[in-house]
Write a structure and sequence with these properties.
With about 300 residues, the chain is mainly α. The chain has a domain at about 95-290: Rhomboid-like fold. Helices cover about 60% and strands about 0% of the residues. It has helices spanning about 5-10, 50-55, 60-70, 85-100, 105-115, 135, 145-165, 170-190, 200-215, 220-235, 245-260, 270-295; strands at about 40, 45. A two-stranded antiparallel sheet has the order 1-2. α7 packs across α8 (about 170-190) and α8 packs across α9 (about 200-215). The N and C termini lie far apart (about 80 Å). Residues about 70-80 have low confidence and may be disordered.
Length: about 300
């Protein structure tokens, strides 16, 4: 690395600091940049000049988003790395469980052990079995490759932009509360139904993104169309889709998005945490109080 050929090749040095050796390229202009000049992007890093050009070309909606969520006003901000770590982690865990489901014999047992049915919350109605964790473990199992594939594709598409905006812990809370809301909606509206899949959590992402996007003045027409189509499909006979989970997840996602918007300043972090916990407690109370009235009626 100290040969004359290397020393004379200026491509091996930062273009802004010619004395600094580096092998990292800006993903926009492909010029070499040192560690000080690197800004993490969705994929790779970009140099200061390309970052300035990107900021200059931002749309009005993107500029409003920066003002609403940027550091300059003391509000919550995106994760510094900009990488949707939680999104990828959820996808990996869900994909792993889906692979286990493909194992003959064992896959059926995995599905039975993790699927949600409201009867598992009431020992007196289900042979003494009490397994409340199924409210969330149902998010990990799916009804087939198409089912898990579509859910994970939607998670990947939305998570890449929504997670950096909210931050990792808020995004995870949104996903789990949305999944919980989907299971609770199924338990209340269709207490005899067994449900699997992360659709409730995914629809929560749709709901939160819709609320936040409308607040920022972004054009949400495309998202509304996609959301509407997916909701309608759930009511078409033959598709065997738990529309209750979709509606429950979307409603909780919209509520969580509203809470985060209204408590996004640093001084309101405690209130935000308390409100999100309150949402979880209300959902749990609802699924434990309302279904018995229906089942025993």
């Amino acid at each position: 690395m100290t040969t004359p050929e290397f020393a004379n090749n200026r491509d091996n040095y930062c273009y802004r600091h010619p004395d600094r050796q580096s092998f990292v390229l800006c993903q926009r202009c492909m010029r070499t940049i040192c560690h000080e000049c690197q800004t993490p992007a969705a994929v790779g890093v970009i140099c200061p000049e390309c970052m300035a050009a990107e900021r200059k070309n931002r749309t009005p909606a993107q500029k409003r988003a920066q003002r609403q969520w940027g550091r300059s006003r003391g509000t919550l901000t995106a994760v510094s790395s900009g990488r949707p770590i939680v999104t990828y982690a959820i996808m990996i865990v869900t994909a792993f469980v889906s692979l286990l489901q493909l194992i003959p014999g064992f896959g059926v047992e995995i599905t039975r052990a993790l699927a949600f049915q409201v009867g598992f919350l009431y020992p007196s109605l289900n042979g003494g079995i009490f397994e409340p964790w199924r409210l969330l473990t149902a998010l990990l199992v799916h009804g087939g490759l198409w089912h898990v594939g579509l859910n994970m594709l939607a998670l990947w598409m939305i998570g890449r932009s929504l997670e950096p905006m909210l931050g990792r812990w808020r995004f995870l809370a949104l996903y789990l509360l949305g999944g919980l809301g989907g299971s609770v909606a199924v338990g209340i509206l269709a207490p005899g139904t067994s449900v699997v899949g992360a659709s409730g959590a995914v629809f929560a992402l749709f709901g939160a993104l819709l609320v936040i996007g409308l607040h920022m003045g972004a054009n949400m027409t495309g998202l509304l169309i996609i959301l509407g189509i997916n909701l309608v499909i759930g009511f078409i006979p033959g598709f065997n889709i738990a529309w209750q989970a979709h509606i429950g997840g979307a409603a909780i996602g919209a509520l969580v998005g509203f809470i985060i918007l209204r408590t996004r300043k640093r001084g309101q972090k405690g209130w935000q945490t308390l409100l999100l916990i309150a949402v979880a407690l209300l959902l749990i109370a609802a699924v434990f109080l309302i279904p018995p009235m229906i089942l025993l009626a």
